[in-house]
Amino acid sequence: MRSLRARIFLILILVGTLPNVLMETIIVKTYEIKAVEQRSATVQNQLKILANHLIANEFLASYNPNSPYKLKSHEIIEAELDMLANLYEGRVMIIGSNYKVLLDTYNISEGKTMISEEVVKCFRGENISNYDSEHGYIEMTRPIVNTTDDGDSTIQGVMLTSISDSTITATEKSLNRNAVAFEIITIVMVMVFSFVISGLLTRPFERITKAIGEVKAGYSNDPISVRSYSETVHISDAFNQLQSRMKTIDDSRKEFVSNVSHELKTPLTSMKVLADSLIAQPDAPAELYREFMEDIASEIDRENSIITDLLALTKMDMSNQELNITSVNIGDLAEIILKRLRPIARKKDVELTLEEAREIVADVDEVKMSLIMTNLVENAIKYNRDHGTVKVMLDSDIQFFTFSVVDSGIGIPQESIPFIYERFYRVDKSHSREIGGTGLGLAITRSAVLLHRGTITVTSEEGVGSTFTVKIPLSFIGS
Asked: In sequence order, which residues have a C-beta less than 8 Å from that of residue 140 and are 6 or more positions away?
């Protein structure tokens, strides 16, 4: 039942059959009501005629059911009543004003008192007609009214009649049989139609599933395109975007492995060359040994720095990475970072300043926030010109605080800005080698910012300088 085709199939069957069942019920019920009304109206007209005969022949006043001698008019009226009762498979009783039964076509209740709700209401002038479908008869009353020449009317008796609904029931059963046969034919046709239509409606989704399965199995890497419905278009586009994203990630992974291999191999190659040079010169002076060993130690430090940064980046990339959130005064933290980096700035005669618009207290991971500030300020110093400036600015609103680093350095080409957060990416590899670093600083910084649910942006102009702006919520809300 979780299948879309099965659900469409059932919905179409319900839509196709329920109206038929409802229509059958309405038609049969409507027929029953109309037939009962028509039959009642027909019998009432005949009872009206008989009532007039009874008044004209003074039947109520002169009729004696126990008398062996009856007037001709009485015999005619009895015959008419018997004919009416036989015609409609029913029973007719004539009740006098004293509630005594004068005539019963069943010859059962003559002389008995008949006091019922229907009879009492009829003596008050109300015509009653009830249909008892359970027992299969229609019961009705008809007052016998005597109207004088002066226009006065008096009810002298009541005609209580019950007639069978056998013809109505027979017709109703015939209608039901025809309706059931029609329903069976309709259900079969609807089932065939629903099976075909549900297959046609779900076929585009089956094509999508097949195409995704081929991609999953590795038989194809082509984008899928099923344009039958807007939904299949959305699914196709979403899968193609996901596939493109996965390909980008896979290419990035391959490039990252290649870069890591290259970056780790370079110091090892340098150390190998230095060691081989010493081995080739068994009589080399101590000064040369010292110089080469210092170079080897430098390469070891560089290798260690790359490995440390890789471990830090890998740890921050982990989905279950947890932050140690505490309330931190951002201005005080920035002062500590700048104090730590001022010796580096003095070597290049770079002026390092801090501008704090207001006191800022935020919920952050102090260690990772220090890492963000240190990397950005240190890069601003390293990639600055001599006698340059680095300005750190802090500001906040009701939701976020911003940490901006503005430098007067060499700048970043516009075409390189989208790639500066990639691992091991360097704008100018030769210049970066002179400055040092692993090429992982901005990647680590961006990961730390994203862990805080923040953003990092950059604007830069070659030869003028760069501005990095970090925007982080004042109150941290974990995922």
From this structure: 40, 43, 44, 47, 127, 128, 129, 130, 161, 162, 163
Answer yes or no: do 121 and 265 share one domain: no
Our CA dihedral for 439, 444, 449, 455, rounded to 10 degrees, sits at: 30
Same domain, yes or no, for 391 and 467?
Answer: yes
How far apart (Å, rounded) are the C-alpha atoms in residues 306 and 172?
A: 93
Does residue 245 sit within a domain?
yes
pTM of the entire structure? 0.47
> In degrees to the nearest 10, what's the CA dihedral of 266, 269, 270, 275?
160
Closest CA to 462 of 351, 385, 378, 353: 385
Residues 212/204, Cβ–Cβ less than 8 Å: no
Q: Tell me how many domains the chain contains.
A: 3
Q: Which of 269, 293, 317 is the last residue of a domain?
A: 317
Q: ∠ CA 215-219-221 to the nearest 5 degrees?
A: 50
CA distance linking residue 50 with residue 33, whole number of Å: 26
- Asked if residue 428 is part of any domain, the answer here is yes
Q: Which two tokens stand for residue 369?
A: 């926030």
Give the CATH number for residue 296.
1.10.287.130
Query: Cα–Cα distances in Å, from 287 out to 280, 291, 470?
Result: 16, 6, 48
Choose among 144, 150, 15: nearest CA to 92.
Answer: 144
For 232-284, the pLDDT digits (tens) are 888 888 888 888 877 776 776 676 666 666 666 767 777 887 788 878 877 77
Tell me whether residue 190 is in a domain. no
- 352 and 296 fall within a common domain: no
d(CA 236, CA 205) in angstroms, rounded, equals: 10
Count CB atoms within 10 A of the CB of residue 92. 23
Question: Which one of 262, 296, 317 terminates a domain?
Answer: 317
pLDDT, one tens digit per residue, over 408-466 is: 988 888 888 887 877 666 665 544 444 555 567 788 888 889 888 899 999 998 888 99
* Tokens found for residue 353: 């300043």
Q: Is the dihedral of CA 212, 218, 223, 225 positive or negative?
A: negative
End-to-end C-alpha distance for the chain, whole angstroms:
35
> Beta strands of 68-152 (E only): which ranges?
91-96, 101-104, 129-132, 137-147
Note whether 412 and 466 are within 8 A (CB): yes
Domain boundaries, position 290: 231-317
